[in-house]
Amino acid sequence: MVGSYTATVFKDNEILSTDIQTLDVRKSQKVMQIVQAFRPDVIVHLAAATDVDRCEQDPDWAFQTNALGTQNIALACQKYDSVMVYISSAAVFNGDKPTPYTEFDVPNPINVYGRSKLAGEQITASLLKRFYIVRAGWMIGGGTKDKKFVGKIASALESGTKQIKAVDDKIGSPTYAKDLFGGIAGLLETDQFGLYHHANAGSCSRYEVAMEIQRIMKMDDVSIVPVSSANFPLPAPRGRSEALQNYKLKLLGFPEQRPWQEALEDYLKSELLPDLQNKQA
Asked: What is the pTM of this model?
């Protein structure tokens, strides 16, 4: 979802890609070989086990990728002096805070996914001096690759569904992947290494996201029903809040990210809806 925007955001940079081969970040020797061959100035580490429920059911799978895979990338960056960007998650927090989380709040994950992503953060910070850890919120993006909430809701609406149930008791900060990458590009110009939050402005529930998608798509005849998360029992516990504030970016004088509603509308109209319509044509 995020990597698909590499060429768009970094179009003025020389991008070295491993598209021609499969790179499993869990294979330390292969990672080292690739980095040795390319000698990149920057590695944006996007590979992750992001299926929260599978992580809960298979912790080894989660930690092999999110922790040890990250360690392999960090060690390669250490050896060949590359700057590392590690994408982390709001899931490192327990979700109890009534206001959005800042970079100065103490992580306390309540599920395996969050613990494995926090382990990746700790490994990155312990092995490197030149790194950016960037925590994102609920990811939006990917077009045809979008298998997340926005993609599912838009597909359901496009297919003629007349009723959609969406959870209204969990909140988060939607993050348009293209905006995230744009923020990373800006950070890379600063040499202000460290930990950052990067989400679009504002927070909301899944129900509010679904309602906004319905408004943008003008599907007024569809019923969007707010429900409790208890209606969708899942293996992994989720905190009440994954809302993020880009506090350090604000303190450094970066402009505020555009509101999540604006980013969502941009994504739907410029990418996702044309892709869905082409599929059905």
From this structure: 0.94
